[in-house]
Amino acid sequence: KKYRTRQQTCCKGSLSFWPAWQTWNWTLWNLPMVILSTLAANTCDGYSGAIRLLVGLDPDGTVLGVRVTSHKETPGLGDRIETKKSNWVHAFEGRSLDNTERPRWNVKKDGGDFDQFTGATITPRAVVKAVARTLVYYRQHREEILRRLHVEERS
Questions:
Q1: Alpha-carbon distance 125 to 107, whole Å?
Q2: Is the pTM above the cut of 0.90?
Q3: How confident is the model over 89-113, as pLDDT tens digits?
């Protein structure tokens, strides 16, 4: 989808996944891994619009990695969500809904566990919320996703 304007494509607080089954079953260091191309997550809560993420999970729903695939955040502020600019996005690794209570899935300014950037709270807030919503989505659809991956593996 093309993102013409924020209002035309999604509303504040939304999270979309495209397409519903753009998932891969990979092995990393001999450990099974589910890549949800956000599942790939797309959040419209960024300061300058949509932020697209790849979220890698193990089959139990623990985050193995998060990467930003596209954004239009302010250079020098919000763009610190990129791994080439900072290691901030690595804070999600090893986190899950089981080991991080739902209220802790916020930036520190909002009482959560994740750092925000000086002068740029909106961007990290959007990414934290998108990862948390991705985990909730995965938990709700886990069996279906894993079943689908198992079928595709056999094909």
A1: 6
A2: no
A3: 999 999 999 999 989 999 999 999 9
Three-state helix/strand/coil letters over the chain: CCCCCHHHHCCCCCEEECCCCCEEEEEECCEEEEEEEEEEEEEEEECCEEEEEEEEECCCCCEEEEEEEECCCCCCCHHHHCCCCCCHHHHHCCCCCCCCCHHHCCEHHHCCCECCECCECHHHHHHHHHHHHHHHHHHHHHHHHHHHHHHHHHC
pLDDT digits (tens, 9 = 90+) for 133-142: 889 988 998 8
How far apart CA 29 and CA 98 sit, in angstroms, is 23
Question: What is the dihedral sign for C-alpha 116, 100, 29, 70?
Answer: negative
